[in-house]
Write a structure and sequence with these properties.
This protein has 250 residues and is an alpha+beta fold. It has two domains: 140 residues, Hotdog Thioesterase (Thiol Ester Dehydrase, Chain A), CATH 3.10.129; 107 residues, Thiol Ester Dehydrase, Chain A (Roll), CATH 3.10.129. Strands 1, 2, 3, 4, 5, 6, 7, 8, 9 and 10 form a ten-stranded antiparallel sheet that branches. A hairpin with a 2-residue loop joins strand 9 and strand 10. Helix 1 packs antiparallel against helix 4. The longest helix has 18 residues. The radius of gyration is 18 Å and the shape is globular. The termini are far apart.
Length: 250
Amino acid sequence: MGIKYSQTHKVAFYESDTRGKMRISDILAVALQTSGEQSYTLNRSDTWVYENFNLFWAVIEYEIHLYKLPEFNEVITIETEATSYNKFFCYRDFIFKNNSGEILVKISSTWVLMNKDTRKVERVVDEIVAPYEAPKVSKITRPHKYLALSEEASCNLAFPVRFSDLDMNGHVNNARYFDWAVDQLDYDFRMAYEPKKIYIRYNHELLYGNHEFIEPVFEFQGNTTCHIIRKDGIDNANIEIVWSEIIEED
């Protein structure tokens, strides 16, 4: 395992949904910010990686376990570490805890290095990852196997790629995909259920530059919603969300 890094974070009003719970997209954003800050402390910032190798980091997969969503004004601790890497993939974990040390969220993530010009995945450069002290392994972690959608899968709301959707790497911020997926679900369902497990796989990056709409198709399979973020007939991302009914505490 690699060097651990942690920081505290107070859940802000703008990160909270109508139930006062931290939004999943903001959980992902804070996780990425935490890993970026560790990289900065190790002199491996995004700017350093780009200026020295013309590369940038991209997340290609998440596995998220939600035990208890952080709440508005709650002070949480986010711990992260790079756990291992091989010639193409790097693996990083995140753990969110409350002040009592209770684990709220666990995230396992898979990363690649992409060329800024060609937008293609390149081999992991040992010089980039050495300071994290994660072991180099030959094993590639087996990815989640996503459920197939039927022909009845539908899209309730399509989205354009807007300038505000883009991040510093010039493609759609990875948290936007989750928001596009769950915005297909109606208000009553979202108020009665919350996610317990989320799987996300990014297949192709989405860029700004044309006016075709994103069509996030989905369907229910038991207590799981299966989503594909689709554009021009291409499946850009797969998302599965396992939901649980909210039991209000007395």
